[in-house]
Design brief:
Length: about 170
């Protein structure tokens, strides 16, 4: 009699999903810059296949090359994990940069609104000790009174400079 909970081989659908995930990893690698690809711990044949896929035009030949590189990666678990790690690191760093950018934009918006200016100034000085509160307040008032976009841009530049000077 067959055991009810005996391990079975993955279904064809599961295998196709896994293959598609590996293809997405390869596609992500093709979109990375050269400096990020240097961190890959791959042997020469895989590196050559990746370089060939990067040089191949965006049509059917590239799709075939992606499938070929995906098949090679499915056989080499260590290379696949290395690729996933590099992708996660690059997208994670980008995500942090975008998050910081949105935080600075939000702070600028609150500085330009008279109701929230005092709280925003206090938050800016706490977050970024290098920022000049008097200058921020002057620029925010100038923007509120005139509606000129120059002080609006200057506020962002000043906040970004202060954020770069502040250690994480």
């Amino acid at each position: 009699m067959k055991e009810p909970y005996a391990p079975t081989a993955p279904s064809r659908s599961a295998l196709k999903r896994q293959a598609h995930q590996v293809e997405e990893v390869v596609q992500g690698l093709l979109n990375l810059g050269g400096s990020q690809l240097e961190r890959l711990q791959w042997d020469q044949p895989l590196r050559a296949e990746l370089d060939l896929a990067r040089k191949t035009p965006q049509h059917g030949a590239r799709k075939r090359q992606i499938k070929h590189l995906s098949a090679l990666l499915r056989r080499d678990f260590d290379a696949l994990e290395s690729a996933r790690t590099v992708l996660e690191e690059s997208t994670g760093a980008h995500r942090v940069q975008v998050q910081d950018f949105h935080l600075l934009e939000d702070l600028r918006e609150r500085l330009c609104q008279e109701q929230s200016r005092a709280d925003a100034l206090q938050e800016a000085s706490q977050r970024y000790p290098a920022c000049d509160e008097a200058l921020l307040e002057q620029l925010a008032r100038s923007y509120s009174e005139t509606g000129d976009r120059r002080p609006y841009r200057e506020i962002f530049r000043h906040l970004r400079t202060a954020a770069e000077k502040t250690p994480r």
